[in-house]
Automatic annotation (TrEMBL):
Transmembrane residue ranges: 15-32, 44-67, 87-109, 116-132, 144-162
A Pfam family per the record: Ni_hydr_CYTB
Biological classification of the source: Bacteria, Pseudomonadati, Pseudomonadota, Betaproteobacteria, Rhodocyclales
Membrane topology: Multi-pass membrane protein
Cited InterPro entries: Cyt_b561_bac/Ni-Hgenase, Cytochrome_b561_oxidase, Di-haem_cyt_TM
Family: Belongs to the cytochrome b561 family.
Name listed for the protein in its UniProt record: Cytochrome b
Location, primary (coarse class): membrane
């Protein structure tokens, strides 16, 4: 279950790939929402699915962070230069912060708009009262974080490809099944 000195274990890999799928899904759903007319059922459904995917991401990220800090990190072989390690740690920290801040800002944005937020069949308690000014601020924050997330994903995937194809180290294979 846990990480070994050669590979991320099944738990870390499952948390990573399910989060990746949900994050890409949440972004695709909200993009697709824009293709449909305001007030249409399809638009409402896509928005609802976006929120459900976002809520699941928060549910996965909390245990993921706990798991991250209680498991050994499998070292990369051959070892990359220290500046790359430093940059990767910084990127991963920003990722975790965004994975928490995005769903939280999404929920608060809806509540500031005066909407009840139903996540996974449960109505969340109202954490804040309706407030149009705050809603506008949270909307901008959510949009900014969403765009930052897209940029982070592009950089992250590019880094994974460079490690695999150019540096020819095991950064990517550590995150894939089957290395033992
Ligand atoms: C990691 C999870 C999430 C990601 C990556 C994400 C990302 C995004 C992105 C990229 C947009 C489009 C912003 C724009 O350009 O207008 C957006 C919009 C939106 N998100 Fe999220 N989001 C997440 C979670 C949530 C959650 C949990 C909720 C609410 C419960 C939520 C509610 C909304 C709403 C209502 C909009 C539309 C805002 C509008 O009216 O334009 N999001 N989100
Ligand atoms: C799309 C959303 C994604 C998110 C939010 C995400 C997030 C993360 C985070 C936070 C880590 C750090 C793990 C740690 O704490 O050590 C990580 C590691 C990793 N991710 Fe992703 N990831 C995504 C997609 C992908 C994709 C598509 C690939 C493959 C092309 C990928 C490949 C990797 C690899 C190889 C690692 C290990 C890196 C290392 O140990 O330095 N990720 N990812």
């Amino acid at each position: 279950m846990g990480n070994t000195d050669r590979q991320f274990g099944p738990v870390a890999r499952a948390l990573h790939w399910w989060s990746a799928l949900l994050v890409i899904g949440a972004i695709a759903l909200i993009e697709a929402k824009g293709w449909f007319e305001k007030g249409s059922d399809t638009r409402a459904l896509l928005g609802l699915l976006h929120m459900q995917a976002g809520a699941l991401i928060l549910l996965l990220t909390v245990p993921r962070i706990v798991w991250r800090f209680t498991q050994p990190l499998p070292p990369i072989t051959p070892a990359p230069p220290p500046w790359q390690d430093g940059l990767a740690h910084l990127m991963h920290f920003v990722f975790y912060a965004a994975l928490i801040a995005l769903p939280v800002s999404g929920v608060l944005m809806k509540q500031a708009h005066g909407d009840a937020v139903v996540l996974l069949g449960m109505s969340l308690p109202a954490l804040i009262a309706p407030d149009p000014g705050l809603r506008e601020y949270l909307h901008e924050l959510h949009e900014l974080l969403g765009n930052a997330m897209i940029a982070l994903i592009v950089a992250h995937v590019a880094a994974a490809v460079v490690h695999h194809r150019v540096q020819r180290d095991d950064t990517l294979t550590r995150m894939l099944p089957g290395k033992g």
